[in-house]
Amino acid sequence: MGPLEKLHIHHEKLISTIKSLAERATKNPADTSLLLAYCNEYLVSHAEAEEVTLYTVDDDPNFVNNMIHEHKEIKHSLDVIDAAFSRGEAGTLTAEIHNFLALLNKHFGEEENTLMPRISKKITEEELESLIGEAHQIEAEKKKSDVWSLFEYDHKRIDLNLSQIKSSKGDPGKSAEYYSIMRTQLLNHIELEETILFPAFGEHTTPDHLGPVNVMIQEHQIITSYLPSPSDKDGVTRAFDVLHELIGKLTVHNKKEELILYPMINRELPRGEKEKVFKECLDRFMKV
Ligand SMILES: [Fe+2]
Ligand SMILES: [Fe+2]
Ligand SMILES: [Fe+2]
Ligand SMILES: [Fe+2]
Question: How far does the centroid of ligand 2 lie from the alpha carbon of residue 48, in Å?
């Protein structure tokens, strides 16, 4: 496979994942967490790597400046999506996601149809191959693998689904559906903390830092006791009766993780380990 084809496949994977996550986000705004986490990890690092490799070979400074400007626009659009997501503004969110996809499509098109054919005429196939290899290397190094923000995004996702349960109270079918989604996501979140995030941290930290982890695990037991299964008799009714308590407990628990534990984990986990944890957990967040 030639270098151009390889780059095309890489772009295809990025764009098809982003499109499917964008579609999920427009159907349920809570899922914007997935789109943001994915782009912050894989798209931003991709753009940064190109600027210092492939883009340096092109002769037309105006074109290159325009491409770099488009990276900035794409990044800005992600920031607008992030802000609308944190404020829960569904209208702005949908409009900006459309804008984001349009920017991305245009940009990838220019890279593949203008930039790459031009570069490949200028340098040999071997040189191009090694340049793309270098781009991949830098892309891997630029990944932030910010597990703190990854898990914080998932808290936000669960919070939004919790508020959708409340706002759809007049429609029992809808609120039961949101309860079921929220419950699956919360149980998945807790499982990932207890089986992936916390154990990875445990291997790389000092024993005195394990105190907060144990407190979080105890709190998980209390939180899960407020999550009756919707398939149990009266499960949904019982869940709605204790919804207020669940939200109270979860708010305090999440704050402790966001202010104390996640920053500590983000700081202390070695790079390679963090990248592995980030990838594995994001893949699993995307499944529910
Ligand atoms: Fe680019
Ligand atoms: Fe690209
Ligand atoms: Fe937790
Ligand atoms: Fe958490």
Answer: 9
